[in-house]
UniProtKB/TrEMBL annotation:
Belongs to the ABC transporter superfamily. This is ABC transporter ATP-binding protein. SMART domains: AAA (SM00382). Residues 18-252 form the ABC transporter domain. InterPro entries: AAA+_ATPase, ABC_transporter-like_ATP-bd, ABC_transpr_TagH-like, Bact_Polysacc_Export_ATP-bd, P-loop_NTPase. GO terms for cellular component: membrane. It holds the Pfam family ABC_tran. Keywords: ATP-binding, Nucleotide-binding, Transport. PANTHER family: TEICHOIC ACIDS EXPORT ATP-BINDING PROTEIN TAGH. One of its GO terms (molecular function) is ATP binding.
Length: 264
């Protein structure tokens, strides 16, 4: 059974050379949370504090909060990249972590070869990725560039290639950190359609995004994370209203009305 359960999960990052205020501020800006001290009197950034989640198959959860609030850290906790400093995290199911679209790619090999490598990084087999090559190539619209080294690609072309791979997988648990940019609006619309299809295929979604439109399209519930702690849990429009105000929430409600409030 696909599930995510965390019990008072905390993630601390020790700062062993934190004598100056500027050093502390730099770490705080990078990791979010609050600054404290652990039992050994070492200065730590409390990136996540007392996180309690109980998610099941079919859940579509969005994460909102300012930069450095802890959204990405939470995704990394759920993926197993980070272990809880205190508390526990129990994740059951095949996890597809989609954080950095460029991770697992080699600038010196071709786009086609990178499709295989990136797919392996996401837990696919070589045969599975070879079977997907034509579909991914059609989606990216990169043509002959797929046979050229990745270092010859523009940023937008790299994003296209990475999105093609990411949206071809079959995850049980999809952990998605918004990292889509540097592509034209027409391709963005195409990418969103394909990401929506990916979400439909996944058993459980946790999605960190600054786009209320995208959250309304893909998610039914949301968590507001602030300085490493969960401030509010509820329907997407309710959480957005608490976080950003009524105008933003009304925009979310309009999008959800167009969806007919149907889960993906």
């Amino acid at each position: 059974m696909v599930s995510i359960d965390t019990y008072d999960a905390c993630v601390d990052f020790p700062i062993f050379d934190a004598k100056s205020r500027s050093m502390k501020k730099a770490f705080l800006g990078a990791a979010g949370g609050a600054i404290g001290r652990n039992d050994s009197n070492v200065v730590v950034v409390e990136a996540l504090k007392n996180i309690n989640l109980h998610l099941r198959e079919g859940d579509r959860v969005g994460l909102v909060g300012h930069n450095g609030a802890g959204k990405s850290t939470l995704l990394r906790l759920l993926s197993g990249i980070y272990e809880p400093t205190r508390g526990s995290a129990d994740v059951r199911g095949r996890v597809a972590p989609v954080f950095d679209l460029g991770v697992g790619m080699d600038p010196e090999i071709s786009g086609m070869e990178n499709i295989i490598i990136r797919g392996l990084f996401l837990g696919q087999t070589r045969k599975q990725m070879k079977d997907k090559l034509d579909d991914i190539a059609d989606f990216t619209e990169l043509g002959d560039y797929l046979h050229m080294p990745l270092r010859t690609y523009s940023t937008g072309m790299r994003v296209r290639l990475a999105l093609g791979v990411v949206t071809s997988i079959e995850p049980e648990i999809l952990l998605l950190d918004e990292g889509i940019g540097a592509v034209d609006s027409a391709f963005m619309a195409k990418a969103r359609d394909r990401l929506t299809a990916l979400v439909e295929r996944s058993g459980l979604l946790v999605f960190a995004s600054h786009s209320n439109e995208f959250l309304a399209q893909l998610c039914d519930t949301a968590l507001w994370i602030d300085h490493g702690e969960i401030r509010q849990v509820g329907l997407v429009d309710e959480v957005v209203e608490a976080y950003e105000g009524k105008e933003a929430a009304d925009a979310v409600r309009r999008i959800r009305d167009e969806r007919g409030h149907r889960p993906l």
